[in-house]
Design brief:
Elements lengths: L8 E2 L8 H6 L4 E4 L15 H12 L3 E5 L4 H8 L5 E3 L8 H9 L7 E5 L2 H10 L3 E4 L12 H17 L13
Parallel strand pairs: 1-6, 2-3, 2-5, 3-4, 5-6
C-alpha cells in the first residue's frame, strides 16, 4: 500500500527536468499537474524560466499536457499563455485523467512521465496508471484551501515512506529508471 505513494524521482523544480535527457529516454510527453507544479496556485502567469523550459521540450519533440483536477474554466485560463493542451477534472488520485491523455495522444505508459507536487494526487495517480512519476517541491510555500488537508496527511505518509525507502532523495535531474 505504501508503494502507491512512492515517486519514481524527486526533483526540486520542473525546470530541472532536462528535455534532452527525456528525449534520450524515449519520452514523448510530459504530463504535469498545474497548481504549484507548473505555475503558482494563485497566479496564471508563468515565468520566463517556464516559457524557456516549454520551448526546450518542444524543440526536443516532447509534448506537454496539463492534467489537473481543476475545472475546465480554471485550467484553460491558466494555460492560455503557453499553448498547452490539458485534461481538466482528472479526478486524481484516480488514474482516469492520465489514461485519457495516454489514449488521446496514442502513447504508451513508458513514453510519458507525470510531474506533480503532491503525493496524494499526482504520485498516486501516476502509480495507479503505471506511469513513472516526478515529485517536485511546490512552487509556493502556501496552498489553496483545498490542498491544506492533503499536505497534513502527506506529512504522516512521508514519515512512513522515509522509514521504508532509504533511497528517497532529491536529485538534480531524472536518471534511467
Amino acid at each position: 500500500m505504501l508503494s502507491k505513494f512512492k515517486p519514481t524521482w524527486m526533483i526540486p523544480t520542473i525546470y530541472q527536468i532536462s528535455p534532452s535527457k527525456l528525449n534520450q529516454m524515449g519520452i514523448k510527453a510530459v504530463f504535469t499537474d498545474l497548481d504549484n507544479t507548473l505555475i503558482p496556485w494563485n497566479n496564471t502567469y508563468g515565468t520566463i524560466q517556464l516559457k524557456n523550459w516549454i520551448n526546450a521540450l518542444y524543440k526536443h519533440g516532447i509534448q506537454l499536457v496539463v492534467i489537473s483536477n481543476n475545472s475546465h474554466k480554471r485550467v484553460s485560463k491558466a494555460v492560455q499563455h503557453f499553448n498547452i493542451d490539458y485534461i481538466s477534472r482528472a479526478y486524481k488520485p484516480l488514474p482516469s485523467g492520465i489514461i485519457k491523455a495516454l489514449k488521446k495522444y496514442n502513447l504508451d505508459n513508458k513514453q510519458v512521465i507525470m510531474v506533480g507536487d503532491q503525493l496524494l494526487t499526482d504520485v498516486v495517480a501516476s502509480n495507479n496508471a503505471k506511469v513513472r512519476s516526478v515529485l517536485v517541491k511546490p512552487v509556493l510555500p502556501s496552498d489553496a484551501w483545498n490542498t491544506k488537508l492533503n499536505r497534513y496527511i502527506e506529512k504522516k505518509i512521508w514519515t512512513k515512506l522515509l522509514k521504508k525507502y532509504n533511497n528517497l532523495t532529491w536529485q538534480e535531474d531524472i536518471d534511467e529508471r
